[in-house]
Amino acid sequence: MRDIGREQMRELLSAPVFRQIGGAADELGVECFLVGGYVRDLFLERPSKDIDCVVVGSGIALAQALKAKMGRKAHLSVFRNFGTAQLTFPSSAGENGRQAVEFVGARRESYSRDSRKPIVEDGTLEDDLSRRDFTINALAVCLNHDRFGELVDLFEGLLDMEDGLIATPLDPDTTFSDDPLRMMRCVRFASQLRFRIEDETQEALVRNAERIKIISQERIIDELNKIVLSPRPSIGFVELSRAGLLPLIFPELAALEGVEVRNGRAHKDNFYHTLEVLDNVAQRSDDLYLRWAALLHDIGKPRSKRWEPQAGWTFKNHNYIGQKMVAPIFRRLKLPLDERLHYVEKLVGLHMRPIAIADEEVTDSAVRRLLFEAGEDIDDLMMLCEADITSKNAERKHRFLENFRLVREKLADLQARDNYRTWTNPITGEEIMQTFGIGPCRQIGDLKQAVKDAIWESRIPNTHEAARAYMLEKAGEMGLEPLTPTD
Ligand code: CTP
Question: Whose alpha carbon is nearest atom 21 of ligand 1?
């Protein structure tokens, strides 16, 4: 975190818009403050997004005054029901070449127990800051001319930022009960910023967890995705579990938690293993759905778990069982039901394959099959599978990684040789029907399969000539005679 004095703050706010806002506020005779995430991110040196301003008076009136000054290049949207207004204008600092500033009047809010809809009245700056979610989000910087750049820190937000703590300005039970989405935000900030949740705040999470049920799934998934995308997502998932939120919002993941011991034999804790895999993937990729595949790769384990007296604990077919669980999970969590779902299903279904190949002799045909089934996503699958090797046994880990190197080498070799990602059978059903003068029947499929097996197992080359000769030979064994030209 950086130390920002008043002078430095003035420098950080050198973009003309901040002075313009302050000037317009002075003319209207109201106080105006920069608040929330923008101020927090100045201290944390994170890229800042939209600008939020609190006006002790009417936010809409200030936005209108500014719009009048900025003219046609600025665009104003007024949301009277919420008492807010948004002004956007061209700026290289903003997204898509435009910067947005949101204005709101300082408010005092109280909530009824069964709704997120607050009863809102005009309030002071202190009222407004105290009803914000966390101390690190409750800092304000004055924009009026005389106090330009002055920091208002009523709830020790700076100290908490220095200590890396998430804490609420008010009694945390009030803050969370007012808006239960804040429980998800609390965990999300801990995960994004690698901050610790302050003890009383953590205890309040546990007490209020059940209230997450009044929050819409769309808002929950937004926060969950931000946790998944954070630099070390395990922090967020451990906190969700500690808070008792995980079984409520994601029971299938919570079901991975725990270790069972029988006859002195224990299986690993699949929740912590999953988080380790997720962190490993997160170190190498920012792709949200590859990270979801890591999170769900063992989701079928609880349903496939068996005790077998000889073998001990087994999780047979957990990849296929898991693959089937992905769509219902995506549907319930309101994740997209398009090709992104199919991608995650595919990776979950195939995640055992490279390990199985690496565990035995790495043959051409096994690698070809893998390449064919994984298609475009082979590199992601390999990344997931390497991340999945979390064995604490150094020798075992080394052996797997070494064999993985072999699988990768063979993959590269085969890809260069015959580009199996986009392989198509050189023999078509049409050709078989014409050759033998037959209509659609099972033998066509059998012949095509025989050709495919022969090519993939490197018994014949991947050319039309070789494939046709082989097909004719196999057809002969089936008793099929090719048409002669006079037929
Ligand atoms: N806020 C709050 N309670 C919420 C949501 C937001 O008190 N449930 C307040 C916080 O002070 C927050 C500000 O409104 O800083 C702006 O909210 P938002 O833009 O959603 O979050 P940011 O803090 O800016 O962070 P991010 O952009 O990462 O979501």
Answer: 37
- Ligand 1 midpoint to CA 179 (Å): 12
Decide whether any atom of ligand 1 lies within 6 Å of the 188 Cβ: no
Give the phi and the psi of residue 59 in degrees, each rounded to 5: -65, -35
| Structure-block tokens of residue 87 | 């002004």
Sign of CA dihedral 232, 235, 238, 240: negative
Whether 198 lines ligand 1, by a CB cut-off of 6 Å, is no
Q: For residues 393 and 444, is the Cβ–Cβ distance under 8 A? A: no
**Which numeric CATH code is attached to 6-163?**
3.30.460.10
Listed residue (58, 61, 51, 65) closest to 18, CA to CA:
51
Pairing state between β 84-90 and 98-105: antiparallel
pTM confidence score: 0.85
The pLDDT assigned to 337 comes to 96
276: closest CA among 240, 241, 232?
A: 232
* Alpha-carbon distances of 306 from 252, 259, 303, 372, 388, rounded to whole Å: 18, 13, 9, 31, 21
40 HSE (CA, 13 A, CB side): 21
Q: Is 102 in the pocket of ligand 1 (CB under 6 A)?
A: no
The secondary structure of residue 462, as a DSSP letter, is S
Q: Is the CB of 226 under 6 A from ligand 1?
A: no
Mutation test of ligand 1: which of 103, 132, 134, 216 has the most ligand atoms closer than 8 Å to its C-beta? 132
Q: For ligand 1, atom 22, which residue shows the shortest CA distance? A: 37
Report how far residue 287's alpha carbon sits from residue 66's, in angstroms, rounded to the nearest whole number. 40
Q: Whose CA is nearest to atom 15 of ligand 1?
A: 36
Residues pairing with 187 in the sheet: none
DSSP annotation string for 365-390: HHHHHHHHHHGGGHHHHHHHHHHT--
Q: Report domain extents, the chain.
A: 6-163, 429-477
Could you give phi then psi for residue 365, rounded to 5 degrees? -70, -40
Phi/psi at 102 (5° precision): -105, 130
pLDDT, one tens digit per residue, over 343-398 is 999 999 999 988 777 777 777 788 888 888 898 899 999 999 999 988 888 888 88
Model confidence pLDDT, tens digit, residues 407-462: 888 888 877 766 666 778 999 999 999 999 999 999 999 999 999 888 877 789 88
Q: Whose CA is nearest to atom 8 of ligand 1?
A: 182
| CB neighbours of residue 50 within 10 Å | 15
Beta bridge partners of 139: none
